[in-house]
């Protein structure tokens, strides 16, 4: 194996597992073609802003979902109406409003779906009664 006499320094400096490691690394990806472009990497550094309607790039391209517009409008009104308002308080208030509206919308959608299911199963009058009772319990 060695042409000269081996010493302890040779033994500790020699990478004994180099061939095994290289074989393992080759076998990990052998025969596995990535299904999506990002599957070849961990996803870090992959630019997905072209598909995300919340991104600034989509907003500037005119393909956004108007979140920035709502924020600009809300913060301008908040700063004008609330005395001593700060941008931090405006942002907190905006998110409180956004979350309460989102939860209200989800609750309403659930109520409508439950009423539709009641109409199909029990009929119109029973569904109306159940809907009123359900809303009174809230």
Summary of the model, kept short:
This protein has 138 residues and is an all-alpha fold.
Would you kindly provide a written description of the structure presented here, covering whatever features stand out?
The structure is a single chain. The chain has 138 residues and is mainly α. The radius of gyration is 31 Å and the shape is elongated. It contains six helices and no strands. Among the domains are: 50-85, no CATH class; 86-138. Helices cover 64% and strands 0% of the residues. The mean pLDDT is 80. The protein has helices spanning 8-13, 18-29, 56-60, 67-81, 87-122, 124-137.
Distance between the termini: 82 Å
The class by helix and strand makeup works out as: mainly alpha
**Uncertain spans:** none
Number of helical segments with 4 or more residues = 6
Sketch the major β-sheet.
none
């Amino acid at each position: 194996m060695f042409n000269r006499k081996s010493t302890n320094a040779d033994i500790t400096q020699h990478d004994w597992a180099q061939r095994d490691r290289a074989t393992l690394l080759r076998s990990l990806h052998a025969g596995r073609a990535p299904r999506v472009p990002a599957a070849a990497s961990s996803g870090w550094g992959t630019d997905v802003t072209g598909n995300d309607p919340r991104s600034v790039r989509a907003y500037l391209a005119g393909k956004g979902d108007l979140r920035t517009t709502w924020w600009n409008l809300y913060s301008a009104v908040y700063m004008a109406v609330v005395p001593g308002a700060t941008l931090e308080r405006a942002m907190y208030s905006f998110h409180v409003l956004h979350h309460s509206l989102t939860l209200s919308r989800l609750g309403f959608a659930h109520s409508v779906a439950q009423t539709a299911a009641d109409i199909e199963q029990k009929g119109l009058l029973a569904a109306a009664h159940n809907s009123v009772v359900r809303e009174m319990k809230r």
